[in-house]
């Protein structure tokens, strides 16, 4: 690479960092909103991709487990600046909220969060936000009776068999059902997308993705290391979550709250605080990690939960052209997404609703917050501030 090429490459990487960091500070509202921000910035303003390519990339990331908006950002970075561009795009979009949540976790550690009114307010915020997420997801992911039935079955399994395996098992079973039930018709000619990643690297990344799912639990048992156990829990959550950031809540809750590594009050307070910061919901892991092991734990948790996203994007991009033509695989993803709705509804009930809604006034306040978010279309950070203030006022009554 000559000096001009190196200069152009550095200029491209700096531009990716600048644009992604701007999005990292301003992208409120969850994964769907993030995709809108990305479209406005990357497609309309920067014109880095055309509409068709962007739509195809979004489709790929919606089909993969993990944080869809983060994966789209990584994919855009890869297409613009190669693998290093994907990493830089991720850092710019993610680090603002990671830093904010680690700081919040360290501040909360010195407080008695169990009876604080503002903590109770954040719990009620979580009720409104997750209910709002379910409303939109159910409309899109369970439009017919078959997928509604899968969602209901998922609710029953997850609530009546409360183990981490139950959630993973129901997602896999829903994928098998979807594979046979939702056979897709041929959608006509599909364009070829070109990604600067070789199939060899793709195979290595996919092998590493599945290999870590097998090796980490073994290392956890053999070493009895707290950090290895933490890395395993967060990696598994990032690897097995379909449907976006809100769905990671029940997986992480099952991993850390029953074991006493983090209290339910602190867990839900962090989840509420995550609504107040821009960027991906998966940065909630930074808060949990920092609560358990300080800033180092926060960074370790962040790396662990987002590592599957990188491995899947780098692994799937070279093979996406063949995968997106396979109607049976698309059917499997439809079944998995329906199960995601059921898992999210179960999480809304337990632990969110059961720990937040204690008195009638709590329910009334949750309805107000839900209406502000759903009907008045107010920004999530306004809902969070209202929840904090309302929680403090309720505590005085």
TrEMBL record:
Q: Show the InterPro entries listed in the entry.
A: Chr_Tranpt_l_chain, Chromate_transpt
Q: What is its main location?
A: membrane
Q: How does it sit in the membrane?
A: Multi-pass membrane protein
Top-level taxon of the source organism: Bacteria
Does the keyword Oxidoreductase feature in the UniProt annotation? no
Q: Which GO terms describe its molecular function?
A: chromate transmembrane transporter activity
A single GO CC term, please? plasma membrane
Pfam families in the cross-refs: Chromate_transp
Q: Where in the cell is the protein located?
A: Cell membrane
- Membrane-crossing ranges are 83-106, 118-138, 150-181, 201-222, 234-252, 295-320, 332-358, 378-396
What are the protein's UniProt keywords?
Answer: Cell membrane, Membrane, Transmembrane, Transmembrane helix
Q: Which family does it belong to?
A: Belongs to the chromate ion transporter (CHR) (TC 2.A.51) family.
Q: What is this protein called?
A: Chromate transporter
Organism equals Ureibacillus chungkukjangi
């Amino acid at each position: 690479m000559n000096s001009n090429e190196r200069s152009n490459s550095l200029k491209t990487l700096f531009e990716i960092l600048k644009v992604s960091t701007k999005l990292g500070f301003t992208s409120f509202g969850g994964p769907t909103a993030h995709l809108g921000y990305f479209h406005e910035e990357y497609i309309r303003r920067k014109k880095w991709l055309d509409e068709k390519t962007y739509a195809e990339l979004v489709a790929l990331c919606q089909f993969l487990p993990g944080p869809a908006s983060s994966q789209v950002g990584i994919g855009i970075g890869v297409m613009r600046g190669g693998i290093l561009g994907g990493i830089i795009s991720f850092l710019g979009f993610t680090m603002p909220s990671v830093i904010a949540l680690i700081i919040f976790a360290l501040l909360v550690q010195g407080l008695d969060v169990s009876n604080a009114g503002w903590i109770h307010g954040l719990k009620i915020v979580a009720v409104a936000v997750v209910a709002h997420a379910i409303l939109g997801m159910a409309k899109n992911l369970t439009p017919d009776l078959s997928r509604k039935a899968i969602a209901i079955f998922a609710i029953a399994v997850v609530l009546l068999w409360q183990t981490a395996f139950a959630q993973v098992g129901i997602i896999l079973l829903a994928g098998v059902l979807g594979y046979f039930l939702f056979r897709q018709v041929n959608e006509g000619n599909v364009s070829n997308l070109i990604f600067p990643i070789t199939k060899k690297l793709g195979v290595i990344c996919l092998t590493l993705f599945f290999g870590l799912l097998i090796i980490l639990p073994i290392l956890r048992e053999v070493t009895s290391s707290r950090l290895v156990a933490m890395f395993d829990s967060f990696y598994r959550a990032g690897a097995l979550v379909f449907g976006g950031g809100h769905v990671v809540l029940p997986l992480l809750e099952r991993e850390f709250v029953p074991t006493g590594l983090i209290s339910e009050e602190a867990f839900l307070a962090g989840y509420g605080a995550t609504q107040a910061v821009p960027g991906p919901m998966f940065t909630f892991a930074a808060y949990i990690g920092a609560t358990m092991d300080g800033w180092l734990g926060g960074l370790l948790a962040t790396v662990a939960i987002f590592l599957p996203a990188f491995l899947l994007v780098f692994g799937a991009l070279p093979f996406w052209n063949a995968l997106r033509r396979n109607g049976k695989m698309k059917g499997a993803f439809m079944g998995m997404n329906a199960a995601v709705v059921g898992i999210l509804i179960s999480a809304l009930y337990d632990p969110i609703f059961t720990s937040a809604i204690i008195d009638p006034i709590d329910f009334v306040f949750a309805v107000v917050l839900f209406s502000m978010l759903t009907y008045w279309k107010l920004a999530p950070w306004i809902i969070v501030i209202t929840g904090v203030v309302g929680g403090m006022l309720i505590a005085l009554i």
